[in-house]
Inverse folding.
C-alpha cells in the first residue's frame, strides 16, 4: 500500500498537477496557470513546514517553498521595490482577486526568463514555464530531504493522513491524452 506522503507527491503533485499544468501550457492558458502555481507553492510549503491545514501560516508556507525554489532574492527585491512580498502582490492577488496587484506580464516563453518571477523595470514578469521548471526541481529536492529524515517523513505522513487526499483508483485520462493507471 502506498503511504500518504508517496501518494501526495507521486500522484497528486507529479501526476495530476504536473499534467494539468502541462496541458494548460499547451493550450496557452498562461493567466490560469499562475494562480495554480501560486496555490501549489503554498501547499508544498505547508507540507514541508509540517503545518498542513494550519490557519495563519499561508505567508510562511508560500515563502518557504519560494526559497526552496531559489527565489530568496525575489522576496527581498519585492520588499525593497514595493514594500511587500510576492505573497501579498502575486499570491494574494491571484487567489483572492484573480489579478496581480501591480503591473505584470504573465507568459510561458523561456527566451528571456532568468527566473519564473522577476522584475523588469516597473513590471512584474511571471514566466510560467521557468517557474514550473524551478518548481519541479524544488519538489524533487524537498522529497529527497523529507525521505532523508525518517522522523520528519513520519510526521508529514501522519499529518497528510488527517486530510482527505481523495484517493482514486483505476485509470485517469487527461484532456492532453496522457493516461495514468493508479
Amino acid at each position: 500500500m502506498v503511504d500518504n506522503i508517496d501518494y501526495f507527491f507521486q500522484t497528486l503533485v507529479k501526476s495530476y498537477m504536473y499534467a494539468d499544468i502541462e496541458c494548460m501550457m499547451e493550450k496557452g492558458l498562461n493567466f490560469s496557470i499562475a494562480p495554480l502555481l501560486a496555490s501549489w507553492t503554498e501547499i508544498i510549503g505547508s507540507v514541508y513546514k509540517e503545518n498542513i491545514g494550519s490557519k495563519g501560516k499561508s505567508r510562511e508556507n508560500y515563502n518557504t517553498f519560494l526559497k526552496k525554489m531559489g527565489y530568496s532574492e525575489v522576496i527581498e527585491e519585492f520588499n525593497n521595490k514595493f514594500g511587500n512580498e510576492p505573497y501579498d502582490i502575486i499570491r494574494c492577488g491571484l487567489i483572492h482577486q484573480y489579478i496581480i496587484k501591480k503591473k505584470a506580464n504573465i507568459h510561458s516563453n523561456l527566451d528571456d526568463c532568468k527566473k519564473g518571477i522577476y522584475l523588469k523595470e516597473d513590471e512584474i514578469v511571471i514566466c510560467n514555464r521557468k517557474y514550473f521548471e524551478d518548481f519541479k526541481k524544488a519538489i524533487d529536492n524537498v522529497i529527497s530531504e523529507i525521505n532523508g529524515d525518517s522522523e520528519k517523513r513520519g510526521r508529514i505522513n501522519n499529518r497528510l493522513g488527517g486530510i482527505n487526499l481523495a484517493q482514486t483508483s483505476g485509470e485517469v485520462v487527461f484532456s492532453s491524452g496522457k493516461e495514468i493507471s493508479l
User: Anything to note?
Assistant: The first strand starts at residue 104 and ends at 107. Residues 4-164 form one domain. The chain has one domain: 4-164. The beta strands are 104-107, 117-120, 123-127, 171-173, 179-181.
